[in-house]
Specification:
The protein is α/β, with parallel strands linked by helices. Helices cover 27% and strands 14% of the residues. α6 packs across α7. Its main location: nucleus.
C-alpha cells in the first residue's frame, strides 16, 4: 500500500517531557548533528505526555504532583515568546499536566507557537500522514464519567481531570479510515506481550505484578490499537524504552492475536480476554503496528529520545487538500475531515459541568448512527473542505498571565478558567455550541493573576 509519490517522514519522539523543553530541544539538536543533519530537517517532534504546559505559578497548583516536587519548568518561556520551539512539536497529555490549560483546549490547539496539543482526543493531518492521539491515563473508576471537573479544582478533581473518558475513546472508534501514527501516554494493555516481555519483566518486576493484577496498561488503548491499526504507536509513562510489533490479520481482532502468542506465562494467559473478532475498520485488512514506548527526560538519551525515518505514508496518499507546503518546505497541519464530522456528530453527548453551578448535563447516549456520520461528512465537505478551511490556523495568543517571579503563590491558590479563543473559533468553524465558554476576563491586567 506504500506510495512512491509521497515524501519520507523524519520525526523525533520523546517519552515524558516533564517540563524540560530546553533540554529536549538542545539534546535533539545534538542527536541530529550526530546523525549528520539538523533538527530543522525534521518534520516534527512528538512528546507523549507529561508535557507540563505550565504558563505561570498558579498553573502548578492544577498539576497532580506533590507540592514539594512541583517546578515551573521551561514552558513559560515558550508561552510568553521569550523562547521559540525550533521544530514543530505535537503533544498529547499525560497524568502530570497543567490540566486547567489542557481543558481550555479540549478540542486541541496551539499551547504556544509551534507547539500543538491534540486535545483530549484528536486526529490531524500532516500532509499525507494521519496522526491520532488520546490524552491522559486510564482509570476504570472514572472511565465512564463525564468531564465534570471545573476550576477551582479540589484534591479529587486534580487527580481525575486527566483520566481518559469513554466518550473520547468512542469518538476515535468511529473512525473508518486508516491511521498512520497513534500517540498515547500510557501503553495499551498487553502490548508488552508482543515484545520481549521476559526481559521487560526481569528488568521491571513490578510490571509483572501489575500484569498479573490485570492493571498494567490501558484497555481502551488496546481497543483503539485493534481498531485503528496504525503503522506506528508511540507512548511514554512507563519510564522505560520498549519495542514491540503487533501484527493483526484480516478479519481478526487484537484479542485473537493475543491468544496466538507463545511463551506467555500461564497465569497471565488466563487473564487474557476471549477472542471476539472485530467489527472495526481494522478487521478489513492485515496490519503491522510498530510500538515504541520511551522513558522520561533525564534518563540516558537513547531511553527517552528517538529520531527515526518513518518512510512514506502507507495509506492516506490521495488527498491533495492536505498537501500544501509551508514556506519552509514542510507541510501545514490540517484538520482531518472525518474527525471534524465525528466531532459534529458527537458534540451533543459531550458532558461538561456548567461553569456557574458545576452541574453536568444529562447524556444523550453514546451511539451515533452511520447515517448521521455520513450527513456530517457531507456537511464538512461542503462547508470546510470545499471552502479551503482545513488548514489549522496558527492563531496562538497568550491570554493568561505569564510567569511573574515576584508573585507569592501558596498551594491553595487556583487560577481563573480563561476562555480560549482557539476553542471558540474551532466551535464556530464547525457551527457547534462551545461548551467551554466562560464569562470573558476583561484583561489580564485587571485580573491580576486570576486568583480564585
Amino acid at each position: 500500500m506504500e506510495s512512491s509519490g509521497t515524501p519520507e517522514l523524519k520525526v523525533a519522539v520523546v517519552g515524558c517531557g516533564h517540563g524540560e523543553l530546553d533540554n529536549i530541544y538542545a539534546t535533539l539538536e545534538s542527536e541530529c548533528e550526530r546523525k549528520g543533519f539538523s533538527s530543522r530537517d525534521l518534520d516534527f517532534l512528538i512528546i507523549c505526555g507529561d508535557f507540563q504546559a505550565v504558563r505561570n505559578e498558579l498553573d502548578l497548583n492544577c498539576m497532580s504532583v506533590p507540592h514539594r516536587h512541583r517546578k515551573l519548568g521551561d514552558f513559560h518561556k515558550y508561552y510568553s515568546g521569550a523562547a521559540q520551539a525550533p521544530v514543530l512539536t505535537i503533544v498529547v497529555g499525560g497524568n502530570h499536566e497543567a490540566s486547567n490549560y489542557h481543558f481550555e483546549l479540549y478540542h486541541g490547539g496551539w499551547l504556544a507557537p509551534n507547539i500543538y496539543y491534540l486535545g483530549a482526543a484528536g486526529v490531524i493531518r500532516y500532509g499525507p500522514w494521519r496522526i491520532a492521539g488520546i490524552s491522559g491515563i486510564y482509570n476504570p473508576r472514572n472511565y465512564h464519567k463525564p468531564h465534570s471537573e471545573r476550576l477551582p479544582y479540589d484534591r479529587d478533581d486534580i487527580r481525575s481531570v486527566y483520566h481518559v473518558r469513554e466518550y473520547d475513546v468512542q469518538r476515535l472508534l468511529f473512525l473508518r479510515s486508516p491511521v498512520d501514527i497513534a500517540l498515547s501516554h500510557d501503553w495499551p494493555a498487553w502490548v508488552e506481550l508482543f515484545g520481549d516481555h521476559k526481559q521487560l519483566f526481569a528488568t521491571k518486576p513490578t510490571f509483572l505484578t501489575s500484569a498479573l493484577a490485570n492493571s498494567l496498561g490501558s484497555k481502551p488503548a488496546t481497543e483503539l490499537l485493534g481498531h485503528l491499526r496504525p503503522s506506528y504507536w508511540f507512548a511514554g509513562h512507563m519510564h522505560i524504552r520498549f519495542e514491540a510489533t503487533v501484527e493483526l490479520e484480516e478479519g481478526a481482532g487484537i484479542y485473537d492475536a493475543l491468544k496466538r502468542l507463545e511463551d506467555v506465562p500461564e497465569k497471565l494467559r488466563a487473564l487474557l480476554p476471549r477472542p471476539s473478532g472485530s467489527s472495526s475498520v481494522g478487521s478489513a485488512f492485515t496490519a503491522k503496528t510498530e510500538f515504541l514506548g520511551l522513558s522520561k527526560v533525564g534518563s540516558p538519551t537513547f531511553q527517552w529520545l528517538e529520531v527515526r525515518n518513518l518512510g512514506r505514508a502507507p495509506y492516506n496518499t490521495n488527498a491533495p487538500h492536505y498537501s500544501r507546503n509551508t514556506t519552509t518546505g514542510k507541510f501545514d497541519l490540517n484538520y482531518d475531515e472525518e474527525w471534524l464530522a465525528i466531532t459534529r456528530a458527537c458534540f451533543a453527548g459531550l458532558q461538561i459541568a456548567d461553569p456557574e453551578t458545576l452541574v453536568v448535563a444529562p447524556s444523550r447516549g453514546k451511539k451515533v448512527a452511520a447515517m448521521t456520520l455520513d450527513e456530517e461528512r457531507k456537511w464538512v465537505k461542503e462547508n470546510i473542505v470545499d471552502k479551503g478551511l482545513l488548514s489549522i490556523p496558527r492563531d496562538f495568543v497568550a491570554h493568561a498571565p505569564v510567569h511573574n517571579p515576584d508573585l507569592v503563590v501558596t498551594p491553595d491558590m487556583q487560577p481563573l478558567e480563561y476562555p480560549n479563543q482557539q476553542t471558540a473559533r474551532f466551535c464556530e468553524l464547525l457551527q457547534i455550541p462551545n461548551k467551554f465558554a466562560m464569562p470573558s476576563v476583561e484583561s489580564t491586567e485587571d485580573a491580576g493573576l486570576g486568583l480564585l
